[in-house]
Amino acid sequence: MKKWIRWPGLLVFLGVLGLLCFLFVFLIDGFVEREIEKSATALNEARVELDKADVSLFPLGIVLNRLQVTDREDPMRNIVEIAEIRFLIDPEKLSRKKVLIREMTVDKVQLNTPRQSSGAIRAVSEEGASQADADKKEKTETFELPALELPNVRDILEKEDLASLKLAEDLKKEIKANQAKWEAKLKELPDKKTFESYRERVKKLKGAEKGGLGGILGGAAEVVSLQKEIRADLNKIQEAKDQLKKDTETLQSRVKDIPKAPLEDIERLKNKYALSPKGLSNISRMFFGEKIGGWAEMAVNTYEKLSPYLGELSGGEKKAVEQKPPRGKGVDIHFRKQAPSPGFHVQVAKVSALLEAGQFNGEVHHLSNAQNILGKALTFQFSGKAIPNVERVNLDGEIDRINPAQATDRLTLHVGGASIQNLSLVKSDRFPVTLKAARADLETQAVIQSGQLDATLSAKLQAVQLAAGLEKDNPPLVQAMADTLADVKAFQLNAAGKGALKNYDLSLSSDLDDVMQKAVGQQVRAQAEKFEKALKSAVTEKVEKALSEVNAESAGLDGIVGELTGRLKLGDGVLKDALAKSTGGLKLPF
Q1: Domain assignment of residue 279, yes or no
Q2: Which is nearest to 298 in space by CA: 159, 423, 140, 162?
Q3: Of the residues 242, 243, 334, 550, which has the maximum number of CB atoms within 10 A of its CB?
Q4: Reported pTM
């Protein structure tokens, strides 16, 4: 009788099957864990650690426990930490080297958690970190309140440079330098001594006439030469006088401009120091600028940290490098696929997150490593659950990398019924402002396309209690502002951020601007007029003093003009003597 079962062969089969099961049960988990850590660390450029990986064969799936992704810019913190990830893998797709996960569960996501040891695998650039800190400080700078009391004019003028005063001082120096130049030139021009010598020569020539006709004819050539010398010297003096007159007229025209210059200084200092109704037109920026600026900067920093990972969503087919096959070997020919699919695709991921604000639950759709192949953008929707002091929170958005050249990210946030308590708006010794209580509904929309930000925020606040923590005996204007704020029961706040992501402009406005302007505008205008009058008097006094010094310096040039005029008069007299007829009645031959 034939044996239907060959026991030796069966035992070998069972042994091999048992060995495979042993390897799968005891080794596959560790292998998957190490591969995930290795691949993710290389992608993140900082450590990615996994406590445990549990692989099941029937059905094919994986459970990952406590995944930690190090923040590459801050190695002692995790950019994200996840308690557990569970998913099943499509076996048919896996056989074609594709990972398709139809549904994934991600539990207890946390952001920015501390690490017990550094997760760095490379040195963090100190220069980059310092630049990031500088950018953050620049964008989250505090906004100062305008002056609430009339500033001291003397104190202002001690620390402010007056353009009009500088104009007078510069002109004074220029006149002084000009005077020194002309005094030096005056020494080079013919002077009284020169013309007196000419006069002596004229007398000698006239004395030669008494020697008769021979003496007259003998001195004719010398007389002509003398006249030429005198005229040449007179021309030098006249040219110098004309040039000095031009210089003086130019300087005098600038002197006349000095009394007009203080008007610009007064206007500039008035706008800088005096409180005006216009200065209260952006009270929103003073009250909310620092808070909203800080929130915006935190959001931008988070986005920039995620940007390297978001870039991996675009995918793209890499060009295969043509290689000559080894001798005697065939070539794998890749035919065009009718329905190409990405190498990794999660159709739906159900996520629960534990953030500082509270617990959020939601879904992420179409997480893939090649949106250009899949043809679908990543979308997400989250809602808050048991958020302290908030009735409802909804967050949804889209990350579109289908066309990497036109990368577009969108986000919309709705917050309803938020209860605000004791929010400090202005930390100032002279005018501290606190939002004691309010109920807020807000909506934020943001679009980032090709590095350009376009974001808006609209917030409606009701049941408002604003308080200025002032002491007693305040100036009238300060008290009026505090009383106005106390009467505010509701207002609308709007904000917008536009421009390059690293250098956007933040603008804010609210109903408080108009309310404050109307309430204290009259008192502000009265103070502004008083300040302007005092400022005008003080600036004019300073400039007039400087102007008198300029005029004193100008007198020195007038003295030089007088000196040149005297020399011309003296020279003209000598020339007339040289041209005078002789006493003998005989005309000289010239």
Answers
A1: no
A2: 140
A3: 550
A4: 0.61
